[in-house]
Amino acid sequence: MSAFPEGFLWGGATAANQLEGGYQEGGRGLSIADALPGGKDRFKIVSQPDFDWTIDEAKYTYPNHMGIDFYHRYKEDIALFAEMGFKCYRFSIAWSRVFPNGDETEPNEVGLKFYDAVIDECLAHDIQPVITISHYELPLNLAKKYGGWKNHYLIEFYERFARTVLTRYADKVKYWMTFNEINSAAHFPVMGQGMVPSTGANDKKNVFQAWHNQFVASAKAVKIAHGLRKNLQVGCMILYATSYSYDSNPQNQLANLQQNQDFNYFCGDVQVRGEYPAYTKRLLAKYDLKFEDLQITDGELALLKQYPVDYIGFSYYMSMAVETTDQDTDTVAGNLMGGVKNPFLKASDWGWQIDPTGLRIALNELYDRYQKPLFVVENGLGAIDKPDKDFNVADDYRIDYLKQHIQAMAGAIADGVDLMGYTPWGCIDLVSASTGEMSKRYGFIYVDLDDQGHGTLDRYRKKSFYWYQDVIKNNGLEKKKPVKPKADPLNLNLD
Q: What positions constitute the catalytic site (predicted)?
């Protein structure tokens, strides 16, 4: 019997800004992803004081513009997902395809018809859509004109967007998430909050105000969804990095406790429990802030309490170690969140430390804390794939990574965790959000496209494609066949 429950949602995950392309087709407006340069220095560039969201086509390449052309090839891609046996497919609706500038009062019907087609194609293959309403693709106009999510007006604009898509697809889509990796703004507010230094990203007051505005917007989306259909499930989505104290020094233990509160739990506590946690006071004080410094109304706090999310979606790629007593401890180069190097772990090609046991810990920690269903909506290995002349990719390293994390999920389910599903990130190769590269590949499907935008865009099944196909077919990792017992040497006829 499988460790995974019947009806477990096996699938894969993508985001519109990283795969759709067609960035000026169908009336779509520009998003913040269109203003991000390609390459490993993209975050360094947008962190400069003078970066102002100006798109300089001559200076940078913009791989997000092209993506992998899902806009024209979605039928082919969804058919490949169906061939793998996907039960669900997590994707996002590009806000600027529905409201090109973000602040219009009427949606773009051509953009909505595209998502009509994508959703219907999924359903035709018995694949349940799992939709992220906002996934690192804020309309560029809202970042430039309004300064991003620090502006209270964005609640109104998001509510209109959410109401539009929730109403249109309430009869077809059961599972939704409001904001992708909402807590990531603790380290890079450019993606989740649409803020850069020139618009106040370095002022933590703006980050906390932006979070509050997103919490309110999320609660409004839950209210809209539950008013449409009682069975609609709206989740939050957080970036979870299991955190360890580097050693048993009480100072590091305390620092690790606070790291968990401040990064892994804060946004979840508000969205799941419906209120700001007690440690908010300490967290704000780190930045010389008080709760009273934020623009928050009693009505908004009541809304948060009344409309918490239904489940917790989260991404898990790596764990972190916290060390505050020795400044000479080796650090990890690849983790966007920083942190010290854990000597017990290996790292990916991009320096992300691989820790499947940390996923089991994460699942237990989250379920113990919230007692609501969990959904692993991102997990995977970004690696350099080297196809042969026929575009075969023997990605055993990816299979090994995913196998270990699936085993960790099975262990968590055995621990008593209520786990809804698993959608590995980048189930088809797409543009990396952190580096703007195609060479950082996650998919089960190889896309012939390089970092300069050269290639046929043709799709090829990797070795992991067939492996994951078997995982879904077996509702988990196939168990070893039982070994037939040897004959009784004493001939005692023990039957």
A: 378 (nucleophile)
CA 492, distance to chain mean position in Å, is 59
Question: Distances in Å between the alpha carbon of 384 and those of 379, 393, 401?
Answer: 17, 10, 14
Nearest to 30 by CA among 77, 84, 117, 100: 100
Distance (Å, rounded) from C-alpha 115 to C-alpha 106? 16
Instruction: Measure the CA dihedral 161/162/163/164, to 10°.
Output: 50
Question: H-helix or E-strand containing 414?
Answer: helix 396-415
Asked whether residue 483 carries a pLDDT value surpassing 60, the answer given is no
Encoded amino acid at 400, one letter: D
Taking Cα atoms as reference points, which of 141, 199, 129 lies closest to residue 377? 129
- pLDDT attached to residue 350: 76
Amino acid at 333: A
Return d(Cα 252, Cα 127) in angstroms, integer.
45
Residue with the bigger pLDDT between 307 and 487: it is: 307
Residue-level length of the chain: 495
**3-class DSSP state of 197:** helix
pTM exceeding 0.90: yes
Measured CA to CA in angstroms, residue 415 lies from 8, 368, 412 at distances of 17, 11, 5
168: helix, strand or coil? helix
For residue 464, give both structure tokens: 């992991």
CA dist 414 and 408 (Å) reads: 10
Over the chain, what is the mean pLDDT? 93
More confident: 1 or 360: 360
Percent of the chain as helix, strand, coil, to the nearest 5 = 40, 15, 45
Query: According to DSSP H, which parts of 37-180 are helical?
Result: 42-46, 63-66, 70-84, 95-98, 109-124, 140-144, 153-169
The C-alpha atoms of residue 238 and residue 179 are separated, in whole angstroms, by: 8
Measure the CA–CA gap between 193 and 32, rounded to whole angstroms: 10
Three-state SS letters, 102-132: CCCCCCCHHHHHHHHHHHHHHHHCCCEEEEE
Between 173 and 349, the more confident residue is 173
pLDDT tens for 251-265 read: 999 999 999 999 999
Q: Given this model, what pLDDT does residue 485 score?
A: 46
Return the closest-CA partner of residue 450 out of 424, 431, 428.
Answer: 431
DSSP state letter for 487? P
Lowest mean pLDDT of 44-53, 183-192, 223-232, 454-463, name the range. Answer: 44-53
